[in-house]
Design a protein that fits this description.
Layout lengths: L2 E3 L12 H8 L13 H4 L15 H19 L1 E4 L9 E5 L3 H4 L2 H12 L3 E4 L21 H11 L5 E6 L16 E6 L8 E9 L5 E9 L2 E8 L9 E6 L2 E6 L6 E2 L5 E6 L6 H16 L3 E5 L6 E6 L13 E7 L14 E3 L22 E6 L4 E8 L2 E6 L15 H10 L25 E2 L14 E3 L1 H33 L1
Parallel strand pairs: 3-4, 3-5, 5-6, 13-14, 13-15, 15-16, 16-20
Antiparallel strand pairs: 1-2, 2-22, 6-21, 7-8, 8-9, 10-11, 11-12, 17-18, 18-19, 19-20
Helix pairs in contact: 3-9, 7-8
């Protein structure tokens, strides 16, 4: 701890301590000389005094000396530095925002080893606060990592060991390149944000107790979904598995919440007029979907008031949205008259495919003014299948018919390719959660170790000081009170002794 005096010359007043010393040493006590024998008559009537130098009241003497020293210190106005002192700690481990997902297995082991060696775990943010748990990511974002590293170098002593783990994006390195005097080792996360993000969108119990996963993948080129079976405990797939109250739950590394594995079959209902041929296409689609996904499915006729996961409404006349209230997703035929003059060479285009070849033919089309998101369209960029979300329900409206007179879709394998994604509404919606989306801006993230130049001399920041004036005032008042009490008691005792002696 550093200490300095604002007015060092005021310490000369400490020589005032000589005052109580002189007072106590000059304190004389008279002693009568007792004359014996014949000398008594030779010196009768003569009184002599004997001087004896000594300190009679040590407590009072020390109180007065301490009071004068305290007043001298008070006049000199001492202050101490409150800068953090280092107690010989091994070093610091600094973790940046997103470390819970960013640290790979090797880096986690490295962090654990450093902590066992005595390194302190701290957040790479203003203040560098201590972190209690490595599995709870509460670190705030950093606007400029270079500027924060300069603050770190100003705060720590030269050579202090620091292991830093961050995402290290170019957008967060705005200040000039700093030169550091601390022993800094800077590593970017093993799983940088430029990598593809994978999360579990849905999970269900398949045949033979297999857990099936609908995985979402987001990268700078877009978002897609794919089907996978959970293998063993899922670790090599990047999937975590746990069982809570008998229900399996899964999640990926970037997810905070667990996804319950559905145990119930998917409920699909079919609402159609009697003797329609398109019923057969839907039944074949459901069978293919069940074989492809290993998902248990129950296909039944529409039952009013009965909840279901997917409803196919293939009616061409009646339209009552109230019938859809219990369905999570609805595929319905649009009502209206077909196009009077069909356009030759028209095709049915799927949203995620490109080109004009190998697409089903579109013979008939119902003109409309629907501006909802288009999942299918024709070569004239007119929406053929639109999707609308409302109050947690997905409404799919088809401006055509699953009929050979309307499209060749029903005669080809495209029927399965086009319709199966609709049974997974997640795969046809554009919205991807912000924490799962990859931005092209993240391409600026650095990889591996980042080396900074070493400072030739330590640049020390001006120390911050705390004045001791207030504490000295209270100490002086305490000493003065004790001195007054001691003096009063001494005088009182002397008076009482004088009365008894008289």
């Amino acid at each position: 701890m550093l200490m300095e005096f604002t007015y060092p010359l005021a310490l000369l007043t400490a020589f005032g301590i000589l005052l109580p010393i002189l007072i106590h040493l000059w304190n004389r006590k008279l002693h009568k000389v007792l004359v014996v024998g014949s000398v008594k008559y030779l010196q009768e009537g003569k009184k002599q005094q004997v001087k004896k130098w000594y300190i009679k009241d040590w407590p009072l003497f020390l109180l007065r000396c301490a009071l004068l020293l305290c007043l001298s210190l008070l006049l000199s106005d001492p202050r101490v530095s409150r800068d953090e002192q280092w107690s010989g700690g091994k070093g610091w481990v600094l973790l940046g925002k997103g470390y819970q997902q960013g640290l790979d297995e090797r880096q986690r082991k490295q962090v654990d080893s450093l902590r066992e060696l005595g390194y302190e775990l701290r957040a790479f943010e203003d203040g560098f606060r201590s972190l209690e748990e490595i599995d709870k990511d509460t670190v705030k974002g950093v606007h400029d990592e270079f500027a924060l590293i300069q603050k770190l170098d100003d705060r720590l002593p030269r050579g202090h060991a620091v292991s830093l783990f961050t995402a290290a994006r170019a957008k967060d390195l705005q200040s000039p390149l700093p030169a550091v005097s601390v022993g800094l080792t800077w590593q970017s996360f093993g799983r940088p944000d430029t990598a593809e993000r994978i999360w579990v969108q849905r999970a269900w119990q398949g045949v033979n107790d297999t857990i099936m996963l609908l995985l979402g993948r987001s990268s700078v080129v877009g978002t897609s979904f794919e089907l996978q079976a959970l293998q063993e405990d899922g670790r090599h797939q990047g999937i975590d598995l746990q069982v809570t109250n008998g229900t399996p739950q899964v999640k990926s590394a970037i997810q905070n919440e667990w996804i319950a594995v559905a145990q119930e079959p998917m409920r699909i209902q079919l609402l159609t007029e009697a003797d329609r041929s398109d019923r057969r296409y839907i039944e074949a689609l459901v069978a293919s979907f069940e074989a492809y996904t290993f998902m248990p499915i129950t296909l039944s006729a529409y039952a009013s008031g009965e909840a279901c996961d997917f409803l196919f409404d293939l009616r061409t006349e009646a339209d009552s949205s109230a019938e859809y209230e219990e369905a999570k997703t609805v595929f319905r035929y649009a009502r209206g008259a077909e196009e009077q003059e069909p356009r030759l060479g028209n095709k049915l285009l799927y949203a995620n495919r490109s080109g004009n070849s190998d697409f089903p033919d579109l013979y008939k089309f119902i003109p409309h003014a629907d501006t909802a998101k288009a999942l299918w369209s024709d070569v004239y960029d007119r929406p053929v299948l639109t999707a609308t979300e409302r109050k947690g329900q997905l409404m799919l409206t088809f401006y055509g018919r699953l009929d050979p007179q309307w499209t060749s879709l029903v005669w080809s394998k495209d029927l399965v390719d086009y319709l199966i994604p609709l049974l997974f509404p997640e795969s046809v919606l554009a919205g991807v959660p912000e924490d799962k989306r990859i931005s092209r801006y993240d391409l600026g993230a650095y990889q591996g170790h980042i080396n900074l130049p070493t400072a030739t001399a330590k640049r020390n920041p001006p120390p911050s000081w705390v004045s001791l004036r207030g504490a000295l005032v209270w100490i002086a008042l305490f000493l003065f009170g004790c001195e007054r009490i001691r003096t009063y008691r001494k005088k009182r005792k002397e008076v009482e002794d004088g009365i008894h002696a008289g």
